[in-house]
């Protein structure tokens, strides 16, 4: 292992790897290793369908994720474990692996949340994960090379898997647990936000694009299995990338309506998954606010008019931001804030529960934008303490509680009466 690390370090130094871009040869090598391992796993265990492997048809297992949450807490789910720090290796991927903590810090500075009024996320157990994932896929994560390929952090392949599990996969499992918990909270409260999650490239039997667990699929399947009256769901995926993970999971499942608005020229360009999209909105390079917001509003309204679901899962990726190295779009910070307001206004105005996850976003300022958007939703009466939820929402475009940097400032009163 030591010789392997030294060899990688030499290659790293000689090639002066730019951490803001993918190293094609390295990624291809990891993909080859992953394919060889997965083929060996399938051959050793025999061919097994997803339905067989996930032990479908049984009574729901006991879980700690569907806990009763006191009304003194807002349906905002977070845990400091979300943030990935591991000898600086997390910096080898353009994703800001500490953005979730920054979002919470900004919300605390505005006195909207405290440690006492948020819901602490719990880690999803292996039995929880089996609701959507195959045994063979979960077993594959015990190989560091597989995790390195999924997270696109090459040095992980040389590390003991026990370290990879603790420092990389445990945070992702905790975010996944947070999404499942937020699903239940959304049904109970009308809305919920997981400060993390949104791993929309992961399906039940394959990970990729920094997505190791299919939290969106899991949240929906948990609701279908455990909550009476929840039989349909709509996924509104506004991350810049196609959400091929949940699309593959729900391919042919008429209970789940998927709307996906994405840059069609970038990863993953998954044609099989695309067949699951019932409202497909493809964007071109450099799409800007006016066209983007018009399409978001038009198609969100259209989707909700076409089918009224029992819950909406909103994948609110911020990699649509202008300058994002992977998204390829040109949406302004204020455009993202207005986008989120459009979705919440359309969903909540119809009395439909909504679960929001934060998904992708590869610039340092995305944490500030996410926080500003949440504050704006609160100010407009679209989320917030129960006693304030019944007030009439303000029109889109009126003053909102966002940072000075985003050119629209709202002064909060000294007391927000969160309890």
UniProtKB/TrEMBL annotation:
GO biological process: epigenetic regulation of gene expression
Disordered as annotated region, ranges: 383-402
InterPro entries linked: HDAC_classIV, HDACs, His_deacetylse_dom, His_deacetylse_dom_sf, Ureohydrolase_dom_sf
Molecular-function GO term, any one: histone deacetylase activity, hydrolytic mechanism
Official protein name in the record: Histone deacetylase 11
GN (gene name): HDAC11
One Pfam family linked to the record: Hist_deacetyl
GO cellular component, one term: histone deacetylase complex
Alphabetically ordered keywords of this record: Hydrolase
Record bears the keyword Hydrolase: yes
Domain annotation Histone deacetylase: ranges: 93-373
């Amino acid at each position: 292992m030591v010789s392997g690390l030294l060899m990688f370090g030499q290659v790293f130094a000689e090639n002066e790897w730019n951490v803001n871009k993918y190293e094609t040869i390295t990624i291809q090598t990891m993909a080859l290793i992953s394919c060889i391992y997965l083929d060996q796993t399938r051959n050793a265990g025999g061919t097994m369908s997803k339905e067989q492997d996930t032990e479908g048809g049984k009574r729901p297992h006991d879980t700690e994720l569907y806990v009763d949450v006191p009304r003194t807490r807002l349906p905002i789910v977070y845990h400091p474990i979300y943030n990935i720090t591991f000898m600086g290796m997390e910096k080898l991927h353009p994703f800001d692996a500490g953005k979730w903590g920054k979002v919470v810090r900004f919300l605390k500075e505005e006195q909207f949340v405290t440690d006492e009024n948020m819901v602490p996320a719990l880690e999803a157990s292996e039995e929880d994960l089996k609701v959507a994932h195959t045994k063979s896929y979960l077993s594959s994560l015990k190989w560091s090379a597989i995790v390195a390929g999924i997270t696109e952090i090459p040095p992980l392949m040389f590390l003991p898997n026990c370290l990879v599990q603790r420092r990389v996969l445990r945070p992702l499992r905790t975010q996944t647990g947070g999404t499942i918990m937020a699903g239940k909270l959304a049904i109970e409260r009308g809305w919920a936000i997981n400060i993390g999650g949104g791993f929309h490239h992961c399906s039940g039997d394959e990970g990729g694009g920094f997505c190791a667990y299919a939290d969106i699929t899991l949240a929906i399947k948990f609701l279908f299995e455990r909550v009476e009256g929840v039989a349909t769901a709509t996924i509104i995926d506004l991350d810049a990338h196609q959400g091929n993970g949940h699309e593959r999971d729900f391919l042919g499942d008429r209970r789940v309506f998927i709307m996906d608005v994405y840059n069609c020229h970038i990863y993953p360009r998954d044609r099989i998954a695309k067949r699951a999209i019932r409202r497909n909105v493809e964007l071109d390079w450099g799409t800007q606010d006016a066209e983007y917001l018009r399409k978001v509003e038009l198609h969100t309204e259209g989707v909700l008019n076409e089918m009224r679901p029992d819950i909406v899962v909103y994948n609110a990726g911020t990699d649509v931001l202008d300058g994002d190295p992977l998204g390829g779009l040109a949406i302004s910070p204020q455009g993202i804030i207005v986008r989120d307001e459009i979705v919440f206004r359309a969903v909540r105005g119809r009395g439909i529960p909504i679960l929001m996850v934060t998904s992708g976003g590869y610039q340092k300022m995305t944490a500030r934008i996410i926080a500003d958007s949440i504050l704006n939703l609160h100010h407009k009466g679209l989320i917030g303490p129960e006693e304030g939820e019944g007030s009439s929402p303000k029109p889109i475009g009126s003053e909102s509680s966002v940072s000075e940097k985003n050119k629209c400032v709202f002064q909060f009163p000294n007391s927000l009466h969160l309890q």
